[in-house]
Amino acid sequence: MTVDLSPVQEYYKDKTIFITGASGFMGKVLLEKLLYSCHSLKEVIIICRPKRGKAPETRLEEMFKLPIFQRIKDERPEMLKRVTIYQGDVTFDQLGLSGESLKHVTENTNIVFHMAATLKLEGNLRDAIDMNLLGTRRALNVAKEMKQLEAFIHLSTAFCNCDQEVMYEKVYEFPHKPEDLMRLAEWMDVKTLDAITPDLLKPHPNTYTYSKRLAELLVRDHYESMPVIIARPSIVSPSAYEPVPGWVDNLNGPTGLMVGAGKGVIRSMLIDTRHLSEVIPVDYAINGLCVIPYQFAKMSERPKDVPVYNITCADHRKMQWGEVIEMSKEIGYRYPMEAGLWYPDGCITTNKLHHNINVLLFHWLPAYLIDFILLLLGQKRFMIRVQNRISVGLEVLQFFTMRAWFFKSDAYSSLWAMLNEADRKNFNMDMDPEETVPMYIESCVQGGRQYLMKESPDSLPRARLQLKLMYILDRACKTLIVGTLCYWTYGLVARLLGV
User: How many other CB atoms are found less than 10 A from the CB of residue 487?
Assistant: First the structure.
């Protein structure tokens, strides 16, 4: 039976796609989307390293068991057989490929999606350079050998040019050269490199955005000889529609804050609520990535400069952080999480002193108290370790939540504008959907419960009862503390006045 293909689907017909980082959050969604919507493709090749004693093939089998691959199993199960997995790693030369696997990749690949990266904002510089910069060079070196290469899409971040007031879709110059930093990381010991890292990073807040900026320069320098393209998503949030609404599999970014606050673990955050939120649903970002090679192939002439796409939400869809937080709180109370540490009623402030006091009283003191109780009971302690991770994460995130960001995303907008009706249905990037922002936040909250915390919707009645009990306990404790302080203050004043 002949199947009518849309223009984008026709472009992918008989194509072989090579993906690095397919086991990551965006990588999984990209893999699923290509298999489901670009079902005329020939093959998808992914590389994966062994992890926790599991071979790449085992990890792929476990990945296919995730809810996001259910619609493929139901509607197009034969597509799963078009995935070829090789053991590989971007921290090795030739990406860890050799012999027949390397030959198969270089002789058949048409499109490369280079998504592998370390996302640890607080990670050390050597690891960031090895994964994000050297890893990109290794991927480019393999891509140079590809005989049928049509597009090499490098996944960057919209925040890598944080010294710019407005971030346009172009590569910005930087005093540091990628080659110099790669050589530096090779010969300098970790201790010395860590010591000079703060000076090297300026004006970047962390090693992630710094290494990503250098990687962009490296990719840009290959544009004359290779069909390279740079895609810069902003903060990637849970899916809006597909593969399933609310899908997420990590605690990075706003999802981690939402879960931490919902569990009552995060009690204070530094956020300027006047600024606009910069998030993009993962399916909107992935649909854009899928269309980018098609648009590049349709161009009548090769652009003078390397194409860059700021994959960000349309300005008219952005809301202030304050509005988003209030909506999230309201929806979070309707869909609470089970067994929280405390009632989820944290403080949002721009005052660092206020925040630090809150962190001391409501993060560290409870953590030490809980670990002390666990010690007395002979149980494994964990709260101080958790709070250490939260503390580092909040410190890193405040750079992004305490300032305004302005992006120009004309190239990304043009992807949606060029699609016909069939492709708009297949690769949705509509910035004027019928669904409202509260509806999306509701799916994010429910997705966090279901996919991250593994809490079934059936547990909601129990979670709501726990929330009510936590509320009573929270108010009782606050009344007791305030009453004690008032009584102590009254006694002190009375003694001073001689009453």
Answer: 10
